[in-house]
Amino acid sequence: MTHTHLSPDEVYENLKKLDQADTTHSAEYRQSAVEVLADLDIDVEVRQAIADRLDDANHLMTLKNVDSDDSY
Question: CA–CA distance from 17 to each of 5, 13, 30, 67, 72 (Å)?
Answer without folding.
Answer: 18, 7, 11, 22, 25
